[in-house]
Amino acid sequence: MFLLGLLGAVLLMIYNSFIMELIGGMRVDFLTIFFRIISSIIFIILLFVFYSYLLKKKRNIILFWISIIIIFLVIEILKNIFKMPRPIGIIEETGYGFPSRHAALAFASFVIMSLRYMKYKWVFLGIAILVTFSRLYLGVHYLGDLIVGGFLGYYMAVFIDKKWK
């Protein structure tokens, strides 16, 4: 499954220009403001603090933050190995684009929260998708960056969670 996702991401990278133009044609002021908020570091931090509050148990909160830190560091290492530039978006971003840190952290948090609150898994998935799509909408990532980042975050969170138990 992971290799299929990776192969799909490589194929999508071939069509990056087309996808970026397609998304660019969808931009309207309201959505741009909404996705700038969803994509902001302040929103992500507040979201993770809220998730920590929901987790309640100290053990789950520690697992959540350890997972976030490990995944953040792995993504940073990969960014510096691949050194793939970002597209020029409608907001200014620095650093490399591949793989997407936002997508990795969004899908990692989806895994951790869903395993503890299965009843709300669709809400957590919706939030992860919104955060990830915000990066494409704002033009600061190619679709392949997001797919690979999302897969990495998802699978690393599953692995960390299994090892934690």
Explain what you see.
The chain is mainly alpha-helical. The protein has helices spanning 2-14, 16-24, 29-39, 41-55, 58-82, 101-116, 121-137, 143-164. The protein has eight helices and no strands. It is globular.
In angstroms, what separates the terminal alpha carbons?
24 Å
Specify the overall morphology: globular
Beta-strand content: under 5%
Parts with pLDDT < 50 across at least 5 consecutive residues: none
Count every helix, treating DSSP H or I runs of 4 or more residues as helices: 8
Would you kindly provide a brief summary of this structure?
The chain is mainly alpha-helical and 165 residues long. The protein has helices at 2-14, 16-24, 29-39, 41-55, 58-82, 101-116, 121-137, 143-164.
What would the keywords be for this entry?
165 residues, mainly alpha, 8 helices, globular
Topology readout:
Blueprint (H helix, E strand, L loop, with lengths): L1 H13 L1 H9 L4 H11 L1 H15 L2 H25 L18 H16 L4 H17 L5 H22 L1
Helix pairs in contact: 1-8, 3-7, 4-5, 5-6, 5-8, 6-7, 6-8
